[in-house]
Amino acid sequence: MVKSPDNSIRSIKAAISASRTFIRERIHKATMNLEALRSTVCNIVDILSVIAPNEIRSYIIEFFKHIEQFYYQSSKQRQIRKFEKLLKHSSNTKVQQTENRSNTNDMNKIIVNLSDRPLNPHEISLLKKGLNFNINRHKLTPFNVILTVEPALNILPNDIVNELRN
């Protein structure tokens, strides 16, 4: 499996294409090995027909057919596993790409800036967290809250400020 150096669409497609090419080459190589094995079996059968008696020759031929079938099945299963792994990987990358696209599009539609100034990245990230955003309580002390609330209270009338402080 070839991994892309980054998450860009072009590099992911190139990695998938390279992986498919490597798998095709491996399938071709396995097929060639299988053909070589078959030709070797045929040569051995021809030699055995001259050397061995019929009873022993039938056992030997049966043994070679069994070995040929074993190699065929093992290489076939290996190639199927590789292909399924490639399909799984390619489908996962497609799902991730569509999720990334939908999240950015949805957030641009959801976050509406009603102020006169542009939002900075920190404000946008807080808005993206939504209503489930929770301030870390270990970092939030009463001293920090009082310091940030006091300047805002100075704007209000004294009777309201005293009521809020109590």
Structural overview:
With 166 residues, the protein is an all-alpha fold. It has a domain at 9-113. 78% of the residues lie in helices and 0% in strands.
- What level of helicity do the residues show? over 70%
**Structural class, from helix and strand content?**
mainly alpha
Roughly how many Å is the radius of gyration?
35 Å
Low-pLDDT runs of 5+ residues are none
Number of strands: 0
Largest sheet, if any?
Answer: none
Please give the alpha-carbon distance between the first and last residues.
Answer: 66 Å
What is the general shape?
Answer: rod-shaped
Strand portion: under 5%
Q: pLDDT average, as an integer?
A: 78
Question: What's the tally of helices?
Answer: 5
Order of secondary-structure elements:
HHHHH
Chart the SSEs and their pairings.
Elements: H1 9-51, H2 54-110, H3 121-129, H4 142-153, H5 158-165
Helix pairs in contact: 1-2
Short characterization:
The protein is mainly alpha-helical.
Keywords:
single chain; 0% strand; mainly alpha; 166 residues
